[in-house]
């Protein structure tokens, strides 16, 4: 199934990173070019994606780290909207679940752990990845790309 996944990140997605970062760095994380990494100097570190339009086709997220500087435990927070345009259940981000990337220098794909209250009548409007632990003894994380797949 992972072979048929494609990037479904809506155009004009807004990216917020913990720590100071330039606009070009934020854009390079989601352009799939893997040229300029984002390095979080300490934990906790987070990436917040706000989609320009809701997406109902996202099923997975792909992350590409630099080996040795991997966020090895992360919480995924989600916000969704019903097909009628209203926020599903309650506004704001809610914990969807956790992912556990391996300390490897390769693209890693994870299923998005949707909220138990989310069903096929909702669309994802925001996704926040909050890294809690790192493979680096000082808590640094180096990430080359983030992809939203479906």
CATH H-level superfamily title: Galactose-binding domain-like
Low-confidence stretches: none
CATH architecture: Sandwich
Question: What radius of gyration results from the CA coordinates?
Answer: 15 Å
Total helical elements: 1
Q: Which structural class do you get from the secondary structure elements? A: mainly beta
Q: Strands of the largest sheet, in order across it?
A: 1-3-8-5-6
Number of strands: 9
Can you give the mean pLDDT?
A: 86
Instruction: Give the ordered list of helices and strands.
Output: EHEEEEEEEE
What is the CATH level 1 assignment? Mainly Beta
Distance between the termini: 10 Å
CATH topology: Jelly Rolls
Largest sheet: 5 strands, antiparallel
Tally of discrete structural domains: 1
Give helix % range: under 10%
β-strand percent reads: over 45%
Shape label: globular
